[in-house]
Amino acid sequence: MEKERSVDRLARYIIILGAIALVAVTCYYFSSVLAYILLAFVVSLIGQPVLHLLRRIKIKGKPAPDAVLSIITLVIIFALLFLLVIQVVPVVTNIVGEASSMNAQDSSGHYNLLDEVNGWIIQVLPWVGEDFDGVQLLIQKISEVLDLSNISGILGSVASAVAGIAVGLFSVIFISFFFIKDDTLFGRIIGALVPDAIEERVKKTILDIERLLSRYFVGLIIEILGVVVLNGLGLWLIARVGFNYAFGIAFIAGLLNIIPYVGPLIGEVIGVVLCVILKYGAGIGLGVNIWLFALIVLCIMLATQLVDAFIYQPLIYSTSIKASPLEIFVVLLIAGHIGGVVGMLIAIPTYTVIRVIASRFFYDFKPVKRLIPNVENENTDTLI
User: Fold this and answer.
1) Could you report the per-residue pLDDT of 109-121, keeping only the tens digit for each?
2) Which region, left, alpha or beta, applies to residue 105 given φ > 0 means left and ψ of -120 to 50 means alpha?
3) Buried/exposed code over 100-118 (b: 16+ C-beta within 10 A; e: otherwise)
4) For the chain, what is the largest distance between any 2 Cα atoms, rounded to a whole number of angstroms?
5) Strand-strand pairing, 58-59 and 62-63
6) Helix-strand-coil percent breakdown of the chain, rounded to 5?
7) By C-alpha distance, which of 52, 48, 56 is closest to 77?
8) pLDDT tens track for 147-166
């Protein structure tokens, strides 16, 4: 009898492992489809608050159908993305143009610099020979890379990439529409894949995850806008780089701010470099010497970063994912060590999911009780 139970238990474990392996293989082969679904889920999390606001608008005492409101929500989201692109791209293009004109004006100085570098290479590496010409070698290598025979392949790759982006964008928009229209759809899909005994608990877990992640992503957007406004006003009113340039550079810094810890530093460096190019190439900016101007720009962006670190981020993390700053810091360190920048980008949403699942299914474990209080106090009676 005991032997039969052991065999049954072993068979059950084998079936479970086989199911896990099958799911893993399926996710691997359909990773692009899974990515579209996850991106659509994120878009729906951002769109849900917009949909709830639109539902308050009533025509003849009735709100518009959810299908219409979902379309309006998607239009609002992607219109904002389009406005972001048309705000940033012209600024970058103009700054590149200023840098190019600056290079053309100072070409003789650059050639002298290249000659000095070439002489230094010959002196340090005498085996290259007296006839070594670094400029010609560089031109030769660039010509090999840009060989005309490769143009057809490059054009084919570009066309394939554009087609892939178009298909992906359409897929994300299409799936997002249904996720926004029915905010319980994702939970029902996951619930259909789990045993009946835990289906209700899984659905409640998905609702908790959606609620917290929606707060997080909306808070992240508010944080980005806050950084953009502070940097933009500072660069416009103090550094005097012009309204369009100021807010274009601020948008770039705000987007990079999404990357924890590293992103703000990169944004500050890029912001200072772009402002210096404008000052040196086009004479746009405060009427001080170049070093003082760079210092002023850096101080503006550092002040914004301090406001972000001590005001924006604590509010977002405490109200959205209900985690302490120390928790977040440790999670980001681990994620950065494992997955680099990408790991840091997905660390907080992933940790939020883990926290909710642990609070729902593993609340009897002492570490979970100590580290994770109730994610939602009103759900205490359903926690294990």
Assistant:
1) 444 555 666 676 7
2) alpha
3) eeeeeeeeeeeeeeeeeeb
4) 93
5) antiparallel
6) 85, 0, 15
7) 48
8) 545 555 666 676 777 777 88
Token reading at 34: 């899974």
The backbone torsions φ and ψ at residue 210, rounded to the nearest 5 degrees and listed phi first, read -60, -40
Tokens for 112? Answer: 């002298």
Which residue in 262, 284, 222 sits closest to 344, CA to CA? 262
- Tokens (6 digits) for 193: 């894949």
High-pLDDT (> 70) share of the chain, %: 74
Residue 80 backbone dihedrals phi, psi, to 5 degrees: -65, -40
Rounded to the nearest 5 degrees, what angle is found at the Cα of 107, between the Cα atoms of 104 and 108? 145
State how far the Cα of 242 lies from the Cα of 98, in Å rounded to an integer: 14
Residues 16 and 148: their CA atoms lie apart, in Å, by 55
Q: How far is CA 70 from CA 43, 98, 157, 177, in A?
A: 11, 43, 35, 6
Whether pLDDT at 300 is above 90: yes
Among candidates 127, 315, 352, 90, which has minimal Cα distance to 220? 315
Q: What is the DSSP string of 276-316?
A: HHIIIII--S-SS-HHHHHHHHHHHHHHHHHHIIIIIHHHH
Any residues with CB less than 8 A from the CB of 55 and at least 6 apart, and which? 63, 69
DSSP string, 157-188: HHHHHHHHHHHHHHHHHHHHHHHHH-TTHHHH
Give the ranges where 30-133 is alpha helix by DSSP (H).
Answer: 31-55, 66-105, 107-124
Residue range 10-31, pLDDT digits in tens: 776 677 777 778 877 877 787 8
